[in-house]
Amino acid sequence: MQQWARIAILGAMFVVAYLLILAWQKDYGTAETKPQQEAAVVSHEVSADLPNSQTVATAASDVPQANMPAQQATDATAPVSQQLISVQTDLYHLWISPKGGDIVRVELLNHDKNKDSDEPFVMLESDAKRTYVAQSGLVGLNGPDSSRNGRPTYELEKTAYTLADAKPAKGKDGKDIQVLSVPLVLKTADGIEIIKTFNFTAGEYPVVVNHKVVNRSGQNWQGQMFGQLKRDNSEDPGKSDQGIFTLGTFLGGAWGTPDEQYNKLKFNNFVEEKLTTEAKGGWVAMVQHYFVSAWIPGNLKLTQANGEAYTAKLESRKSTDDMNIIGFTSPAFNVPAGTVAEIDAQFYSGPKIQSELKDLAAGLNQTVDYGWLWPIAKLLFVGLEFFHGLVGNWGWAIILLTILVKLILWPLSSKSYRSMAKMRVIAPEMQRMKEEFGEDRMRFSQEMMALYKREQVNPLAGCLPLLLQMPIFLALYWVLMESVELRHAPWLLWIQDLSSMDPWFILPLLMGATMFIQQMLNPQPADPMQAKVFKIMPIIFTVFMLFFPAGLVLYWICNNSITILQQSLINKSVEKDRAKRDEATPAN
């Protein structure tokens, strides 16, 4: 009974792991790539190396449609500029288009394209290969982005900014920070001045996008701020290639409100299950493997009053050229003649670092999606972070975490291993009973149960360690696949990326060897068929582990090694106790 139960659980682990990949691919795999229309490719073409000319055009249909008379739309009279604005901080190199003030390219300087490249990871871009941009502006009754002439073109102070242009300021916590401001100015013929400013803080990814409306006309001005992400159906550039498996995490839209903090929306469902809700303190995002771009609606400040958070409308839709758009629109606000109003929002485009995302908006940190085992995965990640802080290496952190988990489970597993050790000791007695009672299965079962009771053995206790390890194994899989901190993280020697498979397959072979040794310490099945299945299991798991992340295989090796040590000590202890008892029996 015990052996079949253990084989069944091992088989279940194999099947669950396989189904995990299939389910992961179905839920989180990349959307089907659709060919973009030729016109769209041309209109979004930007140099893939260093964008230096404004060829990025944005259709008016991209922006949110507001209820307004077309004849009352404000026409911009600013001259057309052909130069993109280059902004470089310590974290990224970013380009802004004067046409609408959209962010058309973001390169993450602290994250490489892949482990074999020194090129920065490209988060946003707009070229012949891919369209993924962050748009924002003012729409509504007098909003310039609702003009029948299309998106406005802003005047520029200069076209290149670095942290050398930053100025000292005070952060929310009172600490000194360096803020780099990039202003864009739009002046209309009727006396309206709109200053769109991008505020970058040194050492931080969030960007505050502020719109300041100065009304020098003789009439009331009314508008709404919008912020949105626009992306085509191209594949996730951050997905992991694991040999025969292509492991990807969720690629699509996401949004959250204080009441519903995290929700996912596949690109295919942007129309059928489209987002349309209102919230104060919500957010919208596009999620991919390891990285996320998000808009977080901010504050509205009228004249000299303090800024207050506004209730924004969160929406998703498809554009006419089959682009995926998710964004927000603020409520309409008025700027009476002779007054000033400001409205802003935060934009984030970078790695899914939980400690940073949780402070931006409620639920945004859940874009680090650990699946249905997230409570266990979160604890594992906290443990990994702690040990990484001590040793400075994620590989050693995994080993230390494994030791900690085994110590926590030691009391429960010791009872199970002791029961297995007793099964190993009484195996000859069970074989003798089987031969003695032959085909009388009822008598054999009765004698076997009596033996279990006399020796205080639980035949199913040996299954407990496997049951305890299964959720930890699956949770750690999600941690390794979703935590950007482990992306391209080296351990030692040939293991230069714990999030991808072992290129030389040494760790899977070691895992198979430790699994085989562990099985040899357990009671061997009396049934020949069970014995064959038992011997095949290490081979099956070795083959399967060839394509799993090296960090996960490293955990399994450490877990097996500690189990071997624990089982060996318990086996010797039980055998010693049994020998003492056998020696004492004749004397009685």
UniProtKB/TrEMBL annotation:
Biological processes, Gene Ontology terms: protein insertion into membrane; protein transport
Protein name, per record: Membrane protein insertase YidC
Gene3D superfamilies associated with the record: 2.70.98.90
Superkingdom per UniProt: Bacteria
Domain (Membrane insertase YidC/Oxa/ALB C-terminal): residue spans on this chain: 394-572
Function: Required for the insertion and/or proper folding and/or complex formation of integral membrane proteins into the membrane. Involved in integration of membrane proteins that insert both dependently and independently of the Sec translocase complex, as well as at least some lipoproteins. Aids folding of multispanning membrane proteins.
This protein's UniProt keywords: Cell membrane, Chaperone, Membrane, Protein transport, Transmembrane, Transmembrane helix, Transport
Sequence ranges assigned to domain Membrane insertase YidC N-terminal in this UniProt record: 85-381
Membrane topology: Multi-pass membrane protein
Subcellular location: Cell inner membrane; Cell membrane
PANTHER family, alphabetized: CYTOCHROME C OXIDASE ASSEMBLY PROTEIN COX18, MITOCHONDRIAL, OXA1
GO molecular function: membrane insertase activity
Family (UniProt): Belongs to the OXA1/ALB3/YidC family. Type 1 subfamily.
Cellular component GO terms, alphabetical: plasma membrane
Pfam families membership: 60KD_IMP, YidC_periplas
Organism: Acinetobacter wanghuae
InterPro entries: Membr_insert_YidC (IPR019998), Membr_insert_YidC_N (IPR028053), YidC/ALB3/OXA1/COX18 (IPR001708), YidC/Oxa/ALB_C (IPR028055), YidC_ALB_C (IPR047196), YidC_periplasmic_sf (IPR038221)
Subunit note: Interacts with the Sec translocase complex via SecD. Specifically interacts with transmembrane segments of nascent integral membrane proteins during membrane integration.
Regions crossing the membrane: 7-24, 394-413, 457-481, 533-557
NCBIfam families: PRK01318.1-3 (NF002352), PRK01318.1-4 (NF002353), yidC_nterm (TIGR03593), yidC_oxa1_cterm (TIGR03592)
